[in-house]
Amino acid sequence: MDENNFSEPIVFPIEDTIDLHTFQPAEVKDLLHDYLQAAWEKGFREVCIIHGKGSGTLARLVHKTLDRHPLVHSYSWAPRERGGWGATIVFLQEEQL
């Protein structure tokens, strides 16, 4: 930590799945933007976003963000074996627009 008590950014490995349970809702929009860009650059064209089932608020926030992201081709609820409506499968563009 520096003298202002700010911690260094946490670096997460970019994989084909991201679990949002440890993040605050206010962080999700920017986090997803950065994650989708990094995943696309790493070559992933399908990723899974785990947002949980809960009240559905986080899922709606995720979907709203995906609706506006230029790298997103489409998305759908995950199949039951990958989390069902507690996760979203995202299909990314083959080429950046």
Shape: globular
CATH topology: Ribosomal Protein S8, Chain: A, domain 1
Mean pLDDT: 90
Q: Strand pairing plus helix content: what structural class?
A: alpha+beta
What is the CATH architecture descriptor? 2-Layer Sandwich
The proportion of residues forming helix, as a percent range, comes to 25-40%
Our count of helices gives: 2
Q: Write down how many β-strands occur, each being a DSSP E stretch of 2 or more residues.
A: 4
CATH class: Alpha Beta
Distance between the termini: 39 Å
Strand portion: 15-25%
Order of helices and strands: EHEHEE
- The biggest beta sheet, please? 4 strands, mixed
Strand order in the largest sheet: 1-2-4-3
From the alpha carbons, calculate the radius of gyration and give it in angstroms. Answer: 14 Å
Count of separate structural domains: 1
Unreliable parts: none
Summarize the structure.
Helices cover 31% and strands 21% of the residues.
